[in-house]
Amino acid sequence: MCGIFGYIGPKTNAAKMVIEGLKSLEYRGYDSWGIALKTDNDIIVYKKTGKVGEINKLPKNLLGKTELAIGHTRWATHGGVTNANAHPHFTENKEIVLIHNGIFENYFEVKKQLLRKGHKFTSETDTEVIAHLIQENLKRHDFEQSVKNAIKKIEGRYAIVIIHKNENKIIAARRGSPLIVGVGKNGEYYIASDVPAFLKYTKKVMYLDNDQMVILSENSAKFYEIKTHKEIHKKMIEIGWDSQTAEKGAYAHFMLKEIMEQKETLYRAINQDDRLIKKVADAINNACGTYFVGCGTAGKVCLTAEYLFSEIAHKHVNSIFGSEFPTHHHFITNKTLLIPISQSGETADTLEAIEVAKEVGAKIISIVNVETSTMARMSDLIIPVKCGPEKAVASTKVTTAQMAILILLAYASIEKLSEGKILLLETAEKINDMLNPGYVMHIFKLAEKLKNFESMYIIGRGANYPMALESAIKLQEVSYIHAEGFAAGELKHGPIALIQKNTPCIVLVGENGSKSAILSNAMEVRARGGYIIGVSPTHEEVFDYWIRVPEVSIASPIVNIIPIQILAYQLAILRKNNPDMPRNLAKSVTVK
Ligand code: M6R
């Protein structure tokens, strides 16, 4: 949530670079944006509601020569979406400027103290309180010390970046929210919430960890522990992603591009070192309780783990949403295995579950796409998902790749890894065939039929039940159509009352064992007037509209979710929504 980007170095077009970089971070928040650039002895701030502005439409003074600029794209937490609440935030005397990602949990108490001292606030944000806190400290201390003193008062998770009108440096600090330093040529530095902001300029990065700060000047990046102010020597890491995979290419939207990339992402996800997969499978076999933990779509992937392990390995594993983990931590011991699943590796609720589990000595093995994320660095071991950057808010390619890894693990836990691999290789090949233009058009036609409905339902059984829930998320988040997923057999216990003439009901048909049962459930819906959309390898009489998917036995949740991703995308387009930037959402949810 919220994107941060800053630059210091010899290039004199820092402001333009920061504005361009912010555009690649808009998936993190896009309700307002702003930039601060340093001139000789002053700072110019420009901020506005809406998406990051087009460079050629911005005031000329913003694009003058500057070698230091910071910018922010916001996902509102405290205070509505207004120009005043957009970042950066000035101090009253316009001496320093600050941008922030996260939540300053005790801001109200601190604000009250500052109000008593005569401070006047111009926004409703928690961020502005940090700026004032620093200003208060500047009365007695230098810039660095004032920032340090202020940070020590913040409770909660944050990433902050600050500049001073008389100092040629950027100070940044973090706890919980990501900040990455990019190391450019000729003594230049970038600082951002995520690497795509500077991938065009450098692949060399250094990570800021929790409770650390960095001081960036031209030619130097100094890292410190906030508590002790001990200097830390950071390792430079080279990122494997390239800037092209982080761009849309010929596609109109990242969401469609990422859906189509599933032609090859599955191959990459299953191309794992066998020793790693076997090691993790052994850890699952030897653990006293395995918990899969994730949020949103990743949470639904965790739920498929329960079904996949039960079906494939006859083994019980637990799944739990990150946000619900606090009530389960009583069962966690040093013999528990926690398997967090995440695309970003920055989801606050999942990170908090890891912290709780680590405290009691549980082992942490993450399945994570961003290999250099906070989650990856907090884990004892990771299985990389290897999908490359996923930028659309709606998760697609990473979801199917994560499920493929679960299938590998379940097979490996019964010493049948190669059997699992063969199944997944066949699945990947069939997906490759399936994702052709004719197939996509067939789903686009269905979208045309459904575009004016305000409600739809999705049913599944077994491992396709979590995919019914996931289908609902996909449809909700980009089409804004009310969609709900159910375990098919549960329908008759209540939700069937919602079915009226023509109510769309998507039926995710699973492998043979559950097929006749779900077709009976579909029949029950049709008998009450429902319009049945069957996602199935074979055509069945009960279907009003058939979307063919390949026959892949237990891997059916992987193939069944793909047409729903396409449907959700096209419904967004037909309803004039931007599928890459759905309202009220952000790609990485770094607040609780
Ligand atoms: O980065 P993560 O996988 O940890 O993100 C978890 C959820 O926030 C994410 O899956 C969210 O539900 C997606 N927008 C769904 O498409």
Task: Walk me through the structure.
An 8-stranded antiparallel sheet has the order 3-2-4-1-10-9-11-15, covered by helices on one side. The chain folds into 3 domains: 3-238, Aminohydrolase, N-terminal nucleophile (Ntn) domain (Glutamine Phosphoribosylpyrophosphate, subunit 1, domain 1); 248-434, Glucose-6-phosphate isomerase like protein, domain 1 (Rossmann fold); 436-577, Glucose-6-phosphate isomerase like protein, domain 1 (Rossmann fold). The mean pLDDT is 92. The longest helix is centred in the C-terminal third of the chain and has 19 residues, at 556-574. The protein is α/β, with parallel strands linked by helices. The protein is built from 16 helices and 25 strands. Helix content is 35%, strand content 22%. 5-amino-5-deoxy-1-O-phosphono-D-mannitol (M6R) binds at residues 295-298, 342-344, 347, 350, 393-395, 473, 477, 588-589. Residues 295-298, 342-344, 347, 350, 393-395, 473, 477, 588-589 line the site of 5-amino-5-deoxy-1-O-phosphono-D-mannitol.
Name of the CATH first level of the largest domain? Alpha Beta
Category by helix and strand content: alpha/beta
Give the biggest beta sheet.
8 strands, antiparallel
Oligomer: single chain
Distinct bound molecules: 5-amino-5-deoxy-1-O-phosphono-D-mannitol
Spatial strand order of the main sheet: 3-2-4-1-10-9-11-15
Rg for CA atoms: 25 Å
- Overall helicity: 25-40%
Q: Report low-confidence residues grouped into runs of 5 or more.
A: none
What is the architecture of the largest domain at the second tier of CATH? 4-Layer Sandwich
Domains (count): 3
How many angstroms separate the termini? 11 Å
Tally of strands: 25
Round the mean pLDDT to the nearest integer and report it: 92
